[in-house]
Fold:
Amino acid sequence: MIRSVIVCLLALLSIPSSASAQSCVANPVAVQILGSGGPAINRDRASTSYLLWIDAQAKILVDMGGGAFLRFGQAQAKLSDLSLVAISHLHPDHVSDLPALLWLSHRARKDQLPIAGPSGNDVAPGFPMFLSRLFDEKNGAFQVLGPTLGATQGQLGGGVRLDVGVVDVTKAEPSTVFDKQGVTVTALGIPHGNLPTLAYRVQTRDVSIVLSSDQTGTNPRFVEFARGANVLVMHLAIAAGTINPLHASPAVVGRVAQDAGVGRLIVSHIGQFDLDAAIAELKKFYTGPLTVGADLQCTPVQ
Structure:
């Protein structure tokens, strides 16, 4: 018994520092990684999710992959402070914790919650249909969350009412998703296999943050979309020297960031491969400030 207790204590002590939240409240604008991993099981990294803090409040939530619900709490973010939830695409590692976030959310928030996501095609439903399949009060997978789409709050369930927006991923020019309270959010369709996917740009207090999500890096319009951003978050999902139909190689990630002339590159959605080799390949093309993402890491934007 004593030996088992010691083993458990040692295991707890081995949890990396990335599981300790870095406070974002001291910065006028900051981006916090809730989940820096991808779809594979990783004890150190939740799946994709990001928070943008403005004036000590968590205002913009981008994606909500597995484990992000826990990280949202660890970051001490408040659902009542959110101005927008922005979903990049409908792969589970980007959206699977959304029901957890919304379950009984009406107890924490009374105002409608704006939420946006991509249009659909023959392999994925449009975002409103996706939400209906999840939360419709009669036919949804989580019927107890019917109030999020307008059903009457029930005694055994409920959630904050959603203000649902959908972005046409086929548009060549960026679409405005949100423009209130000194915050402007635009979105641009990007190539990620055949799944409709969005990148988001947030402009506030004379700084900008671009969150690229999963993409191949082959849309030249994305470089213009990210041009001059103070911080660019891109996904480092595949190993050095490899090619993938869904994700940009480290070399392409570096080239895109360099061409866009960003102030700082943060790499996230990190796969399980030789990370040092991937960073070395990236740095052959990108010469600016670089941050390797970790869960709950907070980066001031300036």
Q: What stands out?
A: DSSP finds eight helices and 14 strands in the chain. The first strand starts at residue 29 and ends at 35. The chain has one domain: 22-300. Helices lie at 2-13, 68-74, 92-95, 98-102, 127-135, 220-225, 250-260, 275-283.
